[in-house]
Amino acid sequence: MTRQALIAGGGIGGLAAALGASRAGWDVRLYERAPVFSEVGAGVQLGPNVVRVLHGWGLQEALAHVAAFPHRLQVRDALSGRELGVLQLGPQVLQKYGAPYATIHRADLHELLLHAVQAQGNVWLNLNSAVASYVDNGREVTLQTQTVAGPGHAPGARPVASAPLLEVEGDALIGADGLWSRVRQQMLNDAPPRVTGHLAYRAMLAQASLPERLRSQQVTAWLGPRLHVVQYPVRGGEWLNVVAIVHGQVAGDLQSWDHSANAGDLQAATRLTAAPLRDLIEAVTQCAGTTGPAWRLWALCDRPPLSGAHQQATGRVALLGDAAHPMRPYLAQGAGMAIEDAAELGYALAQALDPAFDVPTVLQRSALDR
Ligand SMILES: Cc1cc2nc3c(=O)[nH]c(=O)nc-3n(C[C@H](O)[C@H](O)[C@H](O)COP(=O)(O)OP(=O)(O)OC[C@H]3O[C@@H](n4cnc5c(N)ncnc54)[C@H](O)[C@@H]3O)c2cc1C
To answer: Which of 100, 195, 288, 330 could disulfide-link to 294, CB 3.0 to 4.6 Å?
Structure first.
């Protein structure tokens, strides 16, 4: 008998969950509210803990094709420019952890997972499908989705008010629908995400468009008072990703924020920093116009930790990625943890093919093992 997994959300976590579940022998139906599978233009760092999972899924070659593998992580004082510490990555990390440290464009990671999912043959992907609610009656879980109007991730994408609710039944539902998760809202009914007061300005640009002295093939983290800037190569080292986090607030609905940024605010917040950092921010800002706006803005939100890992699964429903444990990005592990969750889920779902194990028990065990 084939088991059916339903997945809410087709971000990095949802696609990784689809891969984990389909590799475990489950049929998968995934529902994404956007009209296309896409990821915003920004980078992610992937520690060896995550790269190892991707390698285990047979994605080593695909990853090597699009990622960069920096040899060094340097931490610098943002005000004086002084070096505070260095972590050797490259061969040392490979030797110690059995997998390299990678940096990658989010869109490349997302696409790599999408291709792997599409190659599985037992995954059905549904776009323009907003998850509205679910019913878990103990024997199966029924997911209700609604057709979406509007341009997906762009502001204003909302379910069509008059669209009928479509229902689909499965043996398990995985809520991978991100920070503002509907599945979590129904499962835990906790408070909405909290606004941290931290703003992330993100930019990605061809290294060739920067003066030679500002190009870099290492990870550099600049630390200063109320300031955190990270730069690293992506796309085989040809592009540079820069994230600058400062304190501040934005007005408006954070769920439909269009990410437009005022570079002048960032320049003001970093005006006392060391010359190389100031020069980098200025050079990135100057790239505006040639490849669209240089900086895009995220108002960072998170949630207080759950009271325990057991809260990540109830009955036939489990949460994964930012839906389960949204965090601030300072340790660069959010997407990585979503992928690790998906790997753990895959092990658990493989067990549930044995009639001796029931689905709620394996989902609960997988939540506790994460
Ligand atoms: C500035 C910054 C830097 C970061 N850097 C790193 C890093 O270096 N390394 C790292 O590992 N992580 C990093 N992260 C964290 C990482 O981006 C997230 O943890 C990760 O993207 C979470 O993936 P997810 O799939 O759980 O959620 P999301 O990426 O939010 O995906 C959720 C998906 O669900 C869809 N969805 C939402 N609601 C519904 C619904 N009702 N119905 C259907 N679909 C729905 C959305 O459209 C979306 O496609 C960073 C985050 C930020 C903000």
So the answer is: 288
CB atoms within 10 A of CB 15: 32
pLDDT digits (tens, 9 = 90+) for 301-331: 999 999 999 999 999 999 999 999 999 999 9
* Interatomic CA distance for residues 89 and 96, integer angstroms: 10
- 134-168 per-position pLDDT tens digit: 999 999 999 999 998 765 445 446 677 677 889 99
Match 């493989």 to its residue by tokens: 350
Among candidate residues 317, 311, 304, the one with its CA nearest the CA of residue 345: 317
Q: Whose CA is nearest to atom 19 of ligand 1?
A: 334
pLDDT of residue 149: 77
Spatial CB neighbours of 229, under 8 Å, sequence gap ≥ 6: 78, 221, 222, 242, 243, 244, 245, 270, 277, 281
Q: What is the 3-state secondary structure (H, E, C) of 256-306?
A: HCCCECCHHHHHHHCCCCCHHHHHHHHHHHHCCCCCCCCCEEEEEEECCCC
Please give the full DSSP string across 186-249, using - where no structure is assigned. HHH--PPPEEEEEEEEEEEEEGGGS-GGG--SSEEEEEETTEEEEEEEEGGGTEEEEEEEEE--
DSSP symbol at 80: T
Length of the chain: 370
Quick check: CB of 178 below 6 Å from ligand 1?
yes
Using an 8 Å Cβ cutoff, are 276 and 283 in contact? Answer: no
Amino acid at 184: R
**CA 12–ligand 1 middle distance (angstroms):** 7
CB 224 less than 6 A from any atom of ligand 1: no
Contact 317, 173 (CB under 8 A): yes
| Residue 168 Cβ contacting ligand 1 at under 6 Å | no
* pTM > 0.85: yes
Q: Which of 143, 322, 345 to mutate to test the pocket of ligand 1 (most atoms within 8 A of CB)?
A: 322
| Best mutation site among 6, 31, 32, 146 for ligand 1 pocket (most ligand atoms within 8 Å of CB) | 32
For the annotated catalytic residues, the residue numbers are: 232
Closest CA to 214 of 293, 275, 289: 275
> Residue 48: in which H helix or E strand, if any?
helix 48-56
R_g of the chain, CA atoms, integer Å:
21
